[in-house]
Amino acid sequence: MLNALRRLFSKQLPVFDESWRPFLEKNFVHWDTLTPAEVTRMEMLVARLFHETRWEPANGFDLTLDIKVLISAQAAMLLLGLELDEFPQLTSVIVYPSTIRLGSEYSVGGRVRADKTPPLAGQAHYRGPVVLSWTAARRGAKHPEAGQNVVYHEFAHRLDMLDGVTDGTPPLGDEEARKRWVRVCTAAYDSVRAEHSAVLRPYAGTNPAEFFAVATEVFFNRPVALREHEPELYEELRSFYNQDPAHRPQSHGGV
Ligand SMILES: [Zn+2]
Fold first, then answer.
1. Number of domains making up the chain
2. Distance 22 CA to ligand 1 centre (A)
3. Ligand 1 mean position, distance from CA 122 (Å)
4. Residue 244, phi then psi, degrees to nearest 5
5. 180 alpha carbon to ligand 1 midpoint, in Å?
6. Is the pLDDT of residue 106 over 60?
7. Which of 88-92, 97-101, 156-160, 166-170 is the least confident region?
8. 151-192 pLDDT, tens per residue?
9. Is residue 254 in a domain?
């Protein structure tokens, strides 16, 4: 917020550092699949997310510039086609070196979480932080073939939360679009729960919110497979994200 205010008063846009481009070309597999116009918007989004996010290293982790740039770029992919340049109400991004174990030293919204939870790759809190494992975020940036990406997953939750409810339905254009979304996603969700899906991992059957987050990962990472096996779901995501990743050049293993 402070950074945003400073920018408003100084009328300066956050700067995308030129040195980030070759770094992203090398380390973020989807960067090379974008059109020049998309790259221009991505650079603006990456700069904003990089400069305006409050970054918090967990456990004394050395949270380097490269790490922030790579996480910002992956989060920016979700905003690329939206009329949204930031993730509202994101208080901070907390980065752990590897898996996340929430112990008694961790607090959310002032409340100390003393419960022991299984190791996680990420978490998204409503009106709070996004918590990420750097190991998982780095792997996701380079290896789309498995379909998983913790940054896409957690920031998809943030988009889902925009209407105040984490229910797998982000804000949509109108009531008709919402009804169609619910019909298509409910059918795909039920089939994930009932049987093995060819493209969506079983975790998608946990609840509708996880379904949307997992479907988002697959939409960007294995778009051709998703379009083939779940054409209606692909179309809903294409319409929501206003992107058509199946039509992009497929990065290695990304089909
Ligand atoms: Zn999730």
1. 1
2. 31
3. 8
4. -130, 75
5. 23
6. no
7. 97-101
8. 999 999 999 999 999 999 999 989 999 999 999 999 999 999
9. no
Give the CA radius of gyration of the chain: 18
- Domain assignment present for residue 165? The answer is yes
User: From CA 249, how far away is CA 245, in angstroms rounded?
Assistant: 8
Q: State in Å: Cα 52 to ligand 1 middle.
A: 24
d(CA 151, ligand 1 centre) in Å: 10
Quick check: 203 and 188 in contact, CB under 8 A?
no
Q: How far is the CA of 249 from the centre of ligand 1 (A)?
A: 28
CA 12 – ligand 1 centroid, Å: 35
Q: How far is the CA of 31 from the centre of ligand 1 (A)?
A: 24
Structural domain of 228: 2-247
> The domain that contains 17 carries what CATH number?
3.40.390.10
CA 210 – ligand 1 centroid, Å? 5
Write down the pTM of the prediction: 0.88
Q: How far is CA 190 from the centre of its chain?
A: 23
Token representation of residue 121: 């790759």
User: Distance of CA 13 to CAs 7, 21, 50, 116, 133, Å?
Assistant: 7, 18, 12, 42, 29
Per the CB < 8 A criterion, the answer to whether 156 and 169 are in contact is no
C-alpha 137 to ligand 1 mean position (Å): 14
What's the rounded mean pLDDT across residues 208-225? 97
Residue 253: inside a domain? no
In a domain, 194, yes or no: yes
